[in-house]
Amino acid sequence: MDKTSLYSVMTLSRYGVVSSIAANGSSQSALVGIAVTPELEIVFDTLKTTRKYANLVARPSCSFVLWWSGEQTVQFEGIAIEPQGAALERYREVYFAVWPDGPTRLDWPGLVHLVVRPRWIRYSDYDQSPPLIEEMNFPA
User: Fold this and answer.
1) Spatial CB neighbours of 135, under 8 Å, sequence gap ≥ 6
2) Where are the alpha helices (DSSP H) in 11-137?
């Protein structure tokens, strides 16, 4: 599966589960609304008061699971960043294209947009026989 095909399937999902690591080493997961860039980055918004925000700022390595129908999933490992300036505006455009109500949340105290850049992605389709499973690695 090439990058363009993977982008096409990842954009089928509007939600994903992000998993991060707390200060005590425990894992924590949360369902978030997402958007995907053509570079296979995942964009989501959250509040600075959430556990995931504190975790990702301190320990940016995280993972996602995306799904859309049947037994087709994307497992995703990456590094979270909090974009600033012009980069933030570009990522917000991607996010708002999927979530048109997003701009109405911009005045929420502590709202931020985070971006997770891929390091490893596995696409699995168990709806076919034999299953299709493909992995992609990305440079640091």
Assistant:
1) 120, 121, 122, 123
2) 51-58, 85-98
Structure tokens at 88: 């933030």
Collapsing DSSP states into helix, strand and coil, what is residue 91? helix
Compute the half-sphere exposure of residue 56: CA atoms within 13 Å on the CB side of its CA: 31
What is the rounded average pLDDT of the residues 3-25? 97
Q: Measured between alpha carbons, how far is 10 from 32 in angstroms, rounded to an integer?
A: 14
Provide the CATH number for the domain formed by 3-137 in this structure.
2.30.110.10
Using the predicted structure, report yes or no on whether residue 43 has a pLDDT greater than 90.
yes
Domain range annotation of the chain = 3-137
Please enumerate in sequence order all residues whose Cβ is within 8 A of that of 10, keeping only pairs 6 or more positions apart, or say none. Answer: 36, 40, 66, 74
Nearest-angstrom CA–CA distance, 76 and 74: 6
23: helix, strand or coil: coil
Residue-wise pLDDT tens digits, 100-124: 999 999 999 999 999 999 999 999 9
Q: Pick from 22, 24, 84: which is nearest to 57 by CA?
A: 22
